[in-house]
Amino acid sequence: MGIETKSISIEKVKTSRIDQIDFNNLAFGSVFTDHMLVCDYKNGAWELPKIVPYQNISLDPSSKIFHYGQSIFEGMKAYKDKNDAIFLFRPLDNHKRFNISANRMCIPEIPEDYFMDGLTTLLKLDSAFIPTNAGSSLYIRPFMFASGKGFHASPADEYKFIIACAPSGAYFAGEVKVLIEQTYSRSANGGVGFAKAGGNYAGQFYPTQLAIAKGYNQVIWTDDTEHEYIEEAGAMNIFVRINDTLITGPTSDRILDGITRKSIIEIAKKEGIPVEVRKITVTEVVNAAKAGTLKEMFGAGTAAVISPISAFGFKDTDYALPKLDTPYAQRIKKIITDIQYNKSDDPYGWRYKV
Ligand code: PLP
Ligand code: COI
């Protein structure tokens, strides 16, 4: 049983900002809908969620988010079909992962009905912002952080859960060129790499800026001890195709357990594509590139969807990926996006009607 929708208070905007949005030229995550959901944790309990006009938040300068980075987020999308029906993709998995992240960062869990009823009420209210142009969708950002006060380095006593939404186009503007990183690490054994914690992303910015300055878009992280195993990229999990076999590394406490990743593994199995979940060494990938057996590399994530990689850099050498007629990336992307936009059957039960 969910919380009753009537317990979510709604304060509507006086004037909508929708006319200011150019739906034909949407960047990723840079314009926002009229409303947001806000829910406060105080005195050991979550208060009822409220929907309010999208606005600034006021916080005490000693709020622990600013000092100790107690903050987590999720990334989801809402899609509209040709009849204007609204769909989500495996949203309960995002809720589950949100609470896994919350636990690791000592943030109180958010109940499923607050998350789901809050989100669906918000989506219905702001449904006019869900784009219908090909390749666009409404990017949804649920996040939670320590709003409680004090400089003591310990978990806060107050938190905020917010859902904000942004009509968005593609995450990457064009080809994706990646650098295999062997100096810096994204995460460590026993660390917080598996959590969608804000600091995991802040820590990537500097090495990623260095890679961008060399002409790459993203870093592919390797394990923190030997820098020999391919882990994931900054905002997506990684797949490689050697000959006909699709391979992705196993998840661990250093890697985000991506929902797109696990969906691709299931689709590949059903499509009869040989798929392996196993450790991939950098040496194996470089040797396959040299031998011509490395056919594809692509990233997978909610924002990135399935993003083909055109080349990778390793130790000052660039290796270009071949251009195939019907790459797995294209085939699987069509299957997954047809499910998301309600253009096909959904034999997996992943589509969620709002
Ligand atoms: N890895 C990282 C670091 C990410 O930020 C994301 C994006 O959410 C992913 C992988 C892909 O996860 P998902 O497919 O659940 O969006
Ligand atoms: C997502 O794909 O939803 C993410 O959270 C990645 C983010 C860095 C844009």
Architecture overview:
- With 354 residues, the protein is α+β, with helices and mostly antiparallel strands.
- 24% of the residues lie in helices and 28% in strands.
- The chain has helices at 64-68, 91-104, 112-125, 198-213, 259-270, 282-291, 328-340; strands at 9-10, 35-42, 45-46, 50-53, 71-73, 76-80, 86-89, 137-146, 159-168, 176-180, 218-222, 230-233, 237-242, 245-248, 275-277, 294-301, 305-314, 317-320, 351-353.
- The strands form two sheets. Strands 1, 2, 3, 4, 5, 6, 7, 8, 9 and 19 form a ten-stranded mixed beta sheet that branches.
- Helix 5 (259-270) links the parallel strand 14 (245-248) and strand 15.
- It starts with 8 loop residues before the first strand and ends with a strand.
- The structure holds pyridoxal-5'-phosphate (PLP) and 2-OXO-4-methylpentanoic acid.
- The site of pyridoxal-5'-phosphate (PLP) has 13 residues, from helix 5 and strand 16.
**Strand segment tally:** 19
Q: Which descriptor suits the 3D outline?
A: globular
- Helix segment tally: 7
How far is it from the N-terminal to the C-terminal residue, by CA? 16 Å
The assigned structural class equals alpha+beta
Task: Give the topology, please.
Layout: E1 9-10, E2 35-42, E3 45-46, E4 50-53, H1 64-68, E5 71-73, E6 76-80, E7 86-89, H2 91-104, H3 112-125, E8 137-146, E9 159-168, E10 176-180, H4 198-213, E11 218-222, E12 230-233, E13 237-242, E14 245-248, H5 259-270, E15 275-277, H6 282-291, E16 294-301, E17 305-314, E18 317-320, H7 328-340, E19 351-353
Parallel strand pairs: 1-4, 10-11, 10-17, 14-15
Antiparallel strand pairs: 2-3, 2-4, 2-9, 5-8, 6-7, 6-8, 7-19, 8-9, 11-12, 13-14, 13-16, 16-17, 17-18
Residues 75, 201, 235, 301-303 line the site of 2-OXO-4-methylpentanoic acid.
